Amino acid sequence: MSENVPNDLLYTEDHEWVRQDGNLVTIGITQFAVDQLGDVTQVDLPSEGEVLKIHDVFASVESVKAVSDIYAPVSGKVVKVNSPLLDSPEYVNEEPYDGGWMAQVEMSSPGDLKGLMTSAAYEEFLKDHED
Amino acid sequence: MNASSATEPRTTPLCQAHRRLDAKMIDFGGWLMPVNYPAGILEEHKATRTAVGMFDVCHMGEVHFRGARAAEAVQRLVTNHVGKLYDGRAMYTVACNPKGGIVDDLIVYRVKPDHFLIVVNAANIAKDYGHFVQQVGAWCEIRNASDETGLISFQGPKAQACLAPLTRAPLATLKPFHFLPEVEVAGRPAWIARTGYTGEDGFEIFCAAPDAEPLWQALLDACAGVGGRPVGLGARDTLRLEARLSLYGNDLNDETTPLEAGLGWVVKFEAGDFIGREALMRQRDAGLARKLAGFVMLGRGIARHGYPIHDPSTGAKVGDVTSGTVGPTVGKNIGLGYVPTALARAGARLLIDCRGKQTEAEVVEGPFYRR
């Protein structure tokens, strides 16, 4: 299966994506994650203003099959969440890199980004983890 | 079907068919089964409620009882009244252990007065067959035909219309829980039963294992034009839970009795001296301490197997969720769990601990979905 991995994003091993815009990052989950989850039926998001520590659980996604935690790829403060997902969780399936974004975070340690993968590295990572 | 080993899950005769359909396959209780096809669980669920859903249930077990004492042997094993069956009639029942705990939930088919078929859960084939032989093996011939038998479930409001062109069997007059042995479907010898596990009208088609794949293909072609789809285990679970049908291993096990599980309607004390009868009579007379309650979530949250259930008035943990899911047709999140009898009444409130979030739920009686 050819994976949908946009090359302007950074990625985590937990299949989150990060879009950087200066000190702000937008966070979501990848096409691969969405394919594994199946139909998303509920998304729980953090509160705006919440302070996240890298690797903490900051959101969760429920599909018909199971519940999955979403880990903070960076430390920082949540400045905005995609609240329409609360009523329309299907955006995560339909547009994981656009309408399915989850939160926007103001980074407290921009160095956190160095620990993330480029799209090329993430594609390699996916290849190694295919069944 | 091949002999199982410690690591390799067993496959059904439809494994290649699932791969061609690009199914996502998982190891489910030692069987490699489709959890969903590319359409996804919600589309598969909807197809079954509105048109046709096709299920590979070849992994389920078929055990034949033959001989002059076959009826007596089956009655010794199950709680429902075998004497009420006639040729071509099937019934849902359970087999119990001497303590009244459920060994398995089953469908018993009377083929002839001296020939019964019992269909058992895939995960329980070895346990059930061992139990049957140990208890009544001296009374009649008991043969485990699971490996040589294929089984396809064809469910939904358009199932009859789609199946009819493939068979000369009189489907229109076949009533629920009745079956037709020795008919043909798509030119292959088959048995057609009007049974299922989805809350819809539908059929279960038994065949020889090598005929399962061509039959599957013929059925797939027959229902594709009306929006029929193959359906995996994911939607099988949402469909059966909306219809409030129990799943062995989740809602039923060796420690739960049919009375506690809300299956008192399959326990007929007058039927005969079945295994577990005395224990169940004692439990009936003493009253039930706990019951399997159905609930709908009132707040945001999806109950899952194993989540704790608390009594809102005391905060005390009173039970666990045995099954829980999204109910795509009912539009609510639904579940089942054993709770003290006083909390199992319609309208009672429960708190479900959804990973630390206490979420209110309301007990409801009967199926969440009725067609």
Provide a descriptive summary of the structure in words:
The complex is a heterodimer of chains A (131) and B (371). With 131 residues, chain A is α+β, with helices and mostly antiparallel strands. Chain A has a single domain, classed as OB fold (Dihydrolipoamide Acetyltransferase, E2P), CATH 2.40.50. Chain A has helices spanning 31-37, 84-87, 91-94, 119-128, and strands spanning 10-11, 16-21, 24-29, 40-44, 51-52, 57-63, 67-71, 76-81, 103-107. Chain A has a six-stranded antiparallel sheet with strand order 1-2-3-9-8-5. Chain A has a three-stranded antiparallel sheet with strand order 4-6-7. Chain B is α+β, with helices and mostly antiparallel strands. Chain B has three domains: 10-59 and 148-242, Probable tRNA modification gtpase trme, domain 1 (Gyrase A, domain 2), CATH 3.30.1360.120; 61-137, Aminomethyltransferase beta-barrel domains (Alpha-Beta Plaits); 289-364, Beta Barrel (Elongation Factor Tu (Ef-tu), domain 3). A six-stranded mixed sheet of chain B has the order 11-12-13-10-4-14. In chain B, helix 2 (41-50) crosses helix 7 (233-242). The model of chain B is unreliable at 1-5 (pLDDT under 50). The A-B interface holds A 38-39, 41-42, 44, 60, 62-67 and B 35-36, 40-42, 234-235, 238, 300-302, 304, 325-326, 328, 355.
